[in-house]
Amino acid sequence: MQMIFNPADFNFTWEGGWYAWDHDAAHKAARKHRDVAAKEAQGRGQKVSKFRLPNQLITRGGIGSGRPHIDLMVTCYGFNAW
Fold it and tell me: How does pLDDT run across 33-57, given as a tens digit for each residue?
């Protein structure tokens, strides 16, 4: 099993015609969620290997969404369990 936690999925909100997002808090939340899920997998007897994927380009909004196109550079956090 592999799980990836994307910081852009945490604390990102659209406010009026723009967005609000706290980069540091989002990365902290993604790491925390990854660590909790990895610990649960270990509790089920699975071996776990954590990793991170730096410099991932994540897009929000854009054509057809009614929102401006936003690009975010994030580090995604994940783990493999077997």
Answer: 999 999 999 999 999 999 999 999 9
Give the residue carrying structure tokens 């997998």.
41
For residues 2-21, average pLDDT: 95
Name the residue with tokens 């723009």.
Answer: 18
Global pTM reads: 0.90
Q: How many domains does the chain have?
A: 1
* Contact status, residue 60 vs residue 12, Cβ threshold 8 Å: yes
Contacts of 10 (CB under 8 A, 6+ apart): 25, 26, 29, 30, 33
Beta bridge partners of 61: none
